[in-house]
# Entry
Amino acid sequence: MAILNVAQVAAFLGIQEIRVERLARENLLVAHGKDEQGKPVFDEEDVKRYKILAERLGGL
# Structure
């Protein structure tokens, strides 16, 4: 299980970091926990599943 920070998730999904934080805040992308700065961190598998779902629903 790999843990990704906000910047890594944003790069993987091709979106801005602020949008990743909003997705976490709205519980659309479930955070695994928080880092030292209080920003969410994510499980890589959850991010991959989210990307697949978002693409099926019409894109990110």
Notes: Strands lie at 3-4, 33-34, 40-43. The longest strand covers residues 40-43. The chain has a mean pLDDT of 93. The first helix runs from residue 6 to 13.
